[in-house]
Structure formats: structure tokens, C-alpha cells
Amino acid sequence: SKDYARPLQEWVCEVVDSLIDKNKEAVEIGFETDIVLELQTLIGTQLTLQEVKFIHINALKLFTTYGSIERKKEMFEKGIMQNIIRILKSTDVTVTEKTVALISNIVRNAREISEKPQINPYLDQLQKDGIITALYQDGLLAGGNDLIKTMVSECIGQLYNTTPLPEEMKETVVQSLKTGIEIGIRDKDSLNIYFSLLALSCLAWNIANHDEIVKGNPIAWTDEILKINDSVIKEGLSLPKIRELTHRTDFYVKKSSYMLLSWISSRNEMILFEQIKQEICGKTKEEKTILARTGFMEDIITVLKEGKNQIEDKGGLVILAINVAQDLIRMNQQLVQLELDDGEFFDDLFQFYQELQPDQIYNDFVFILVSLADATSDLQKLAMKKIDFINPFIHLLQCTDEDSLIYIILHVTVTLTQMKENGQIKQQDEFLEVMKENGGLDRLIQIAQNDKIQRKGIKQYAAITIASLHKAMKLPDEFRVTIVDSLKQMSNDKNKVFIFLSALALSRIAECEDNHTDIISGDFETALKNYIQIIDIGVNDYGIMLALNLLQFGSKETQNKVGNGVPWQDLYDIILDVTDESILQSAILLDQWKLAIS
User: Fold this and answer.
1) Is the pTM of this model over 0.85?
2) CB 334 within 8 A of CB 289
3) Residue 1 vs residues 4, 11, 455: alpha-carbon distances, Å
4) SS3 state of residue 165
5) Contact residues for 255 (Cβ-Cβ < 8 A; gap 6+)
6) 529-536: long-range pairs with CB below 8 Å, 24+
7) pLDDT at residue 81 above 60?
8) Can you tell me the distance from the alpha carbon of 139 to that of 145, in angstroms, rounded to the nearest whole number?
9) What is the DSSP letter of 386?
10) In 3D, which of 579, 581, 515 has the Cα closest to residue 546?
11) How many C-beta neighbours within 10 Å does residue 594 have?
């Protein structure tokens, strides 16, 4: 009777438990003597759901814990999962936990399941038998605790290796895996993190699962995960798939992928640069210069040299190194000059950029260029206007990430608009031929004419650079109107940088009469007034030069347009107030033209 059988059955299970624990020989005996089959029959058919206890299911589960891959495959073939799946409905969470653990151990039978794009060999049969539906409904949706839900989602994730998750369960399964990782990070439970990452890696083989996986930027956990420094976690990461993510368009996915790969490949260096960032925080420019020159710049240069040949794996480390360099040179012309004199840092920075592909860029790689623009004098910018710093960099104009492209094109503009005056009338820019040969000019023209670009400043910088490169030359017919109109529109921009640079560019193309018709067309007079009336002596200087070049090289019609556009009283005020001798002489010369054109 049951009254005698049940205690005896429990005693047998306790004996099995004590014999098998970490004893692989006992596991083999259990299979050879049909103990496993007897346990399967007991739990699957003889005991009611309410009668199944922890000791029963745990005894059977131990054969999956310590049995070989071949034995676990044998358990799958014997239909053990089909026999015990009903136990997921048990109200005893300890019983449910061991049931899920048993199923999970069998599912993990497939070797290297996350490392290769292979269909899980058990998926088809378990779908047909309703096992996956039961796992989802009874184990995940109705699971008694987070551990059960996480283990079930790990099972489902591994079963759907390379396969789209069913739509009805996709969001819940993936979110449960993310929750498992978060719990693992909180508890520093490396195994929990490992198996959740393993399941996500399995799902990541199929693009249909990607949107749900990357929702909420899950890869942002990577710093926290890898700080646990557990080799088990690293083994659970699908490195080829993560390397692919460094080429994705999503900013957060790209950044987190770079950081993850660098924490794996260069953990000690990552820690070093995190410490350096803390060390330079709050330091004065003088203190930063000393730190830079006594070792930090050498560390940065080493990373740039190594990183250019391993961008995917060391990109995160390069980002940290560049961030440190950016902090060191911010508003620090002295350090910039020292590094320009030495040459090594800038050489290695632009050699790194030469190897960086446009689809690998995200803005932390290039934001240092903004700091360079702010930290360098015009003479220092002119020193950077050389082929060694332009040709390795120019292919990055192909970047489609506008948040990065704005920094790239800003650097191109502030560098290429510098000129070393030689005293000749109508001096042309020798870099126009360089930009034609390296393809940079064509790309700038494409950008300037691309109406799909949304980020303010990109098209403006392109127009400024194109015009400046054509100093004292006719702008080609196919884009002259577009460029000139864009420049004139900038005369009323809220950003004084664009006002200044547009005045500079217009004054340069005004040295060629072939550009005059388009310059003086439309609302030219308003633009000229804006340049001379604004309270900014740099803009005034180029506004005056624009007027002088149009007057000197232009027709009578052009001269009349200039005469109507110059705000003469504002010009007179500049003559009275300006202290710069060069600007004063230009203003006086323009004032003298008043009589000739009146």
C-alpha cells in the first residue's frame, strides 16, 4: 500500500542522493541497474503532483548534474522531460526549482551551443511535445521565484539557438534573461550571469531576436560584469558576435561592445586608465602638463600603437586613453605645443584614425578633436595642416553617424581654413589639390548637398571648407550657388563661429570675379551689414575684407551693391575703436572707397 511504499521510496531516494553526490562511478551504476528508469517511473507516473517531494526530484536531478553528456542525451531519448514536465505546476518551489534544473542540465547537452550557429537538436521534439509551452507558461509566467524564471528563460534561450523566438514569448524570455544578469551582478553570482549570457548569445545568432535583445542597452552592464573578473563569465560571451556589434549603427550598442571587449582583452590597462582619469581630475593645467610629460602621454601613445591593429578588441581601451588625452590637453596650449614639437602623440593618433573604418566610429573616438580646436592657437592649427594629418583622416568623412561626423568635419574645417599668407595677391590654397586627390573634396560636396543630413553644423562646415579651399578661384558651376547661398545664410546665425567662418570663406572666394554674381545676388546687402555691424572684431575684419575684395576685383554693378551694403556709420565706429593695426588699415581703406562708389 501507499502507506508502506511512500516512506520506502523516499528512503531509496535519500540513499541515491548520498551515493551519487559528486560520484560519477555511482552515476554509471545507476544507469546500468535501471535506477534512473525506476526514478523516472516513480516521479512521472506513480506519484501524484502533490506527492512529489524535493528528495524525489533531486535524486533524479543528480544524474543530470554528474552524468556524462552521453548519459544526459540518453535521458532525453528516454523521454524524462516529457514525464516530469507536469511537476512545474507543483506549489513547492523547491520541487519546481529542481525540476527546472534537471531539464536545464539536459538542454545544455549540446556542446559549444552559443559558439556556433547551429540549431539545438532538441528543439523540434520539445516543441512537438509541448515541453517548451509548458516551460513558458508554468515555469516563466507562473514561476514561483526569480531563480525558476531565470533558469526557464535560460533553457528556452539555449533551445532557440540561431532560431527566432516565438513572438508571444520573445519579450518575456529576453527580459527574464536580462533580469537574471542584473541579479547576478547584484549578488556577484558569476554562474547566474554566465548562463544568462549564454542564452542571450544563443538568441543573438538570429537577427529576428536582436531588437528585443538590445532594447534598453543591456550591453551597458559589461563594465560591472567584467569587474567581477570571473573566467566563467568570459567563456559565456560570444566574442565574434560582440565584435560584429562594434560595426552597428546604434551608439550605445557600439560603445558597450567596445568596452566589453577591452575589459576582456586588456583588463589591467583598463583599470590603469580608470585610475589615471581619477588622478587628473581637478588638477590645474600646469599639474596636468607635468603628469602628461612624466608618463601619462607615453601610456596613451602605447595604447594608440597597439589599438590601431586591434580596433575591435582594444577600441574601448583606446577610448579611455583618448578621453585621458582630451582631459590633459583641454584649454592647454602649452601641452599641445610640446606634443606638436615631439610629434609622436599626434602621429600615432592620426595613424589610429587611418585604420579606423567609418562604420566603427562612435563619437568618443573623435570628440578629442573638439578639445583640440578649443586648445590650439591659429598657428598650432596651421601646423596641423599637413598631409600626414589630413590624408590618414579624410576617409572618416564617410561616417554616417552624424554625432561623430560633426566632430570630424569641424576638425577638417578649422584646420583647412588656416593659411600661411605669402604676401601675394590672390594667393590660392595649395591644399585644394590634396583634397581633390584624396577624395575629400568630393565627399565634402556630397555632404553640403545632402538634404537628409539633420545635425546642424555639418553642411555648414562642409560649405565653409569647400569655399575656403577655392580661395581666389572660381567655384565650379555645379555647386557654386549652393555653397554661396549657404554661406550668406550663416551671416545671421545664432552661432558666432558660423558667422565668422562664413565671412572668412566669402572674403576668399570674392578674390575671383567669377564668383561675384552669386555673392551679390539675393540678400547680399543684409549679409554684409551683419558682418560689419556685429560686435566681434574678428567677424568685422573678414566682413571688411569681403567688401574690399568685391570692390577691388569686381564690376561697377558689384561696387554699387557693396556701397549699398556697407553700414558706413558702423565702419566709422570700428575705425575709432579698433586697436588692431591691420584691421584699422583695412577699415580706413574701405572708408576711402566710399567716395569712389558714391
Assistant:
1) no
2) yes
3) 6, 16, 80
4) coil
5) 319, 362, 364
6) 529/565, 529/566, 529/567, 529/570, 530/491, 530/492, 530/499, 531/491, 531/499, 531/503, 532/566, 532/567, 532/570, 532/571, 532/574, 533/567, 533/570, 534/496, 534/499, 536/496, 536/499, 536/500
7) yes
8) 9
9) S
10) 515
11) 13
For 99-163, list the strands marked E by DSSP: none
Instruction: Give residue 229's pLDDT band: very low, low, confident or very high (50, 70, 90).
Output: low
CA–CA distance, 354 with 581 (Å, rounded to integer): 42
**Which triple of cell numbers denotes residue 585?**
588699415
Which grid cell is 106? Answer: 539536459
Q: How many CB atoms lie within 10 A of CB 119?
A: 15
From residue 281, alpha-carbon distances to 284, 323, 326 in Å are 9, 12, 12
In eight-state DSSP terms, residue 118 is -
In what helix (H) or strand (E) does residue 201 lie, and over which residues does it extend?
helix 190-204
- The residue with cell 573604418 is 357
CA distances (Å), origin 510, targets 188, 256, 492? 67, 48, 19
The grid coordinates of residue 105 equal: 542540465
Closest CA to 27 of 56, 65, 53, 58: 65
The tens digit of pLDDT for each residue in 127-152 reads 999 999 999 999 999 988 999 999 99
Task: Find how far residue 439's CA is from the centre of its chain.
Answer: 26
The beta strand positions in 360-418, using DSSP E, are: none
Summarised one tens digit per residue, pLDDT across range 314-349 is: 999 999 999 999 999 999 999 999 999 998 999 999
What are the CA-CA distances from residue 3 to residues 7, 16, 583 (Å)? 7, 21, 109
Q: Which three cell numbers stand for residue 51?
A: 506527492
Sequence-distant (≥ 6) Cβ neighbours of residue 371 within 8 angstroms:
326, 329, 330
Q: For CA atoms 418, 422, 424, 428, give the dihedral sign.
A: negative
Distance CA 298, CA 224 (A): 28
Amino acid at 355: E
> How many other CB atoms are found less than 10 A from the CB of residue 191?
12
Cβ–Cβ under 8 Å, residues 440 and 451: no
Distance of CA 355 to the CA centre of its chain: 17
Helices within 246-310 (DSSP H only): 251-265, 267-280, 285-291, 297-307
CB 429 within 8 A of CB 414: no
From residue 525, give the alpha-carbon distance in Å to each of 159, 347, 488, 571.
71, 45, 10, 15
Q: Which residues contact 181 (CB under 8 A, 6 or more apart)?
A: 192, 193, 196, 197, 218, 221, 225
Please determine, looking at this structure, whether the domain spanning 2-260 carries the CATH number 1.10.3720.10.
no
Say yes or no to pLDDT of 238 above 70: no
pLDDT at 218 over 80: no
pLDDT at 355: 96
Ordered by start, the domain boundaries in the chain are 2-260
Integer Cα distance of 513 and 110 in angstroms: 76
Query: What spatial distance separates the first Cα and last Cα of the chain, rounded to whole Å?
Result: 124
Query: Which residue do the cell numbers 602621454 mark?
Result: 297
Q: Flag whether pLDDT at 518 surpasses 90.
A: yes
Using an 8 Å Cβ cutoff, are 460 and 498 in contact? Answer: yes
| In contact, 243 and 313? CB cutoff 8 Å | yes
Within 13 Å of residue 340, how many CA atoms lie on the same side as its CB? 20
Place of cell 590645474: 284
- pLDDT on residue 219: 58
